[in-house]
Specification:
Blueprint: E1 6-12, H1 35-38, E2 41-45, E3 48-53, H2 62-65, E4 69-74, E5 76-77, E6 105-106, E7 113-121, E8 127-135, E9 145-157, E10 160-168, E11 178-184, E12 192-198, E13 203-207, E14 210-215, E15 223-231, E16 246-258
Antiparallel strand pairs: 1-16, 2-3, 3-16, 4-15, 5-6, 7-12, 7-16, 8-9, 8-15, 9-10, 10-11, 12-13, 13-14
Length: 263
């Protein structure tokens, strides 16, 4: 990314065989389950992160999310006391309660900037891959989701796919729901750069540096990153060839800060 007003402040190139825990929390919303159940299956090799769903992998949160499996990492975590309903992103099931207390962490929780990921997806039909941002949610209204890219395996065709992007407002009264799945003529099994420029006034979504969508609204609070692959049991075909592990391969994740937002 080349822009004179931006400075690179977060540069994850997966250069070590182990996940960099200075950048990432290697669990998915662990407050609703546990760190043991929500830890990801992954491999880092040749500078590439492969988030994986394995055949014998257990669901991450059977109590509140059924048989959904996931391998996901994030850059922050916030939750209330054991047994409370306070915690990040419980919109998949409003009955969520904290099953394991978490120490609040903010590895990388920016407000505004330019963010990009270079990645490819094996295009397995029962899986979803995504890079998204959520409010830290230390107060309920700071809860919106900024989805940079979401790809559902069942929305992929030869050399084209529907790519999800946009805003889910959730409990943020200042925002309007604006999420769409845009058909793009790309092969998602090859590497592409998925990016967003987030400013005070608007959000611009791009693929391979070409603008795909623009929203004239913006969350006005810090947001953390969520990066993962999810297996949706309802989409598993009985007659389909089940190939494991299912993979989401990420080359890099980068975050840039606008000089004008400093201070």
């Amino acid at each position: 990314m080349e822009a004179k007003n931006y400075k690179l402040v977060f540069n994850e190139e997966f250069s070590s065989s182990k996940l960099n825990t200075d950048n990432w929390i290697p669990f998915y919303l662990p407050q609703w389950s546990s760190r043991e159940k929500s830890k990801p299956d992954y491999e880092i090799k040749d500078g590439l992160l492969s988030l994986q769903i394995s055949e014998n992998q257990k669901p991450w949160c059977p109590e509140f999310n059924g048989k959904v499996k996931c391998s996901s990492i994030q850059t922050g975590v916030f939750a209330g006391k054991l047994g409370s309903d306070i915690g990040q992103h419980k919109f998949f099931n409003p009955k969520c309660v904290v099953r394991e207390e978490q120490e609040s962490e903010q590895k990388y929780v920016p407000q505004y900037g330019y963010f990009e990921m270079r990645a490819r997806f094996a295009a397995t039909k029962s899986d979803v891959v995504a890079l998204w941002m959520i409010g830290f949610e230390d107060t309920p209204e700071k809860s919106a989701e900024l989805c940079i890219v979401e790809i559902k395996g069942w929305n992929i065709k030869k050399r084209k796919a529907k790519i999800g992007m946009g805003i889910h407002k959730f409990n943020d009264p200042k925002l309007t729901e604006d999420f769409s799945e845009n058909e793009c003529k790309i092969d998602v099994t090859e590497f592409h750069v998925y990016a967003v420029e987030w400013t005070k006034e608007k959000i611009v979504f791009s693929i391979d540096h070409i603008k795909v969508k623009e929203i004239d609204q913006s969350p006005d609070y810090p947001m953390q990153f969520m990066l993962g692959i999810y297996e949706i049991p309802e989409k598993i075909s009985v007659n389909a060839i089940k190939t494991y592990p299912k993979r989401f391969i990420v080359d890099y994740v980068r975050g840039y800060e606008n000089f004008r937002s400093l201070g």
